[in-house]
């Protein structure tokens, strides 16, 4: 079953070192966190993002690996946690080594049902409708559906901000405008092995596996006056593997409209045959 909070670290396992960054809101007013230590700002951001009930995110993630080659994921997502978990994800680019997806991916999650639209499903699985649907229980055991569920999971803001609170060297590096709004810029690093321990126990092993190629991750976070992060850039490298990611978030706690596909456009996920 998918957890109420979708885990970025889980996505990293499925997408080979994926990461997140954030952008967005600020005002001309003096930042509320101006008198807080940088580490306190991170704690505040983690608390506030865990409480956020909705947001919109645009993301670009670039990775390289000495054996698996380079890759890129680019897209946008609408997220809400109440009155029920719902996600609307569009990935214009999914190019992860040998896992490129021509035409991109569209996915909608409503409650315990995942809807996926991928042109390649027709060729790979014999799908007859533009969309296929899978219950989350089935998605846990279906390789193709699980792959795209993992793509949704890479956009989790709450888990990422929680992980960066383990930084021991974060510092304020000034104020900057992000998308035309005032933010305070913080920079530091966090140790992957310690950061993973901040996640729920059932997610730690998958996160550890997904981030195994990196020891320390550098981050830059831009926080607005309301204490919420608006931009977060993650960068890491080790033994020829690299990670560079940037996400832009906006519209925290604003109403979102996430609709399921029309019923006549939805089919069941075809079963693979063996032999």
From TrEMBL:
The keyword Signal is assigned to this record: yes
Organism encoding this protein: Nonomuraea indica
Recorded coiled-coil stretches: none
Record SUPFAM superfamilies: Prokaryotic lipoproteins and lipoprotein localization factors (SSF89392)
Family membership: Belongs to the LppX/LprAFG lipoprotein family.
Entry keyword Membrane: yes
UniProt KW keywords: Cell membrane, Lipoprotein, Membrane, Signal
Subcellular location field: Cell envelope
Family matches, as Pfam families: LppX_LprAFG (PF07161)
InterPro entries: LolA/LolB/LppX (IPR029046), LppX/LprAFG (IPR009830)
Record's protein name: LppX_LprAFG lipoprotein
Residues annotated as signal peptide: 1-23
Main location: other
Superkingdom in the source lineage: Bacteria
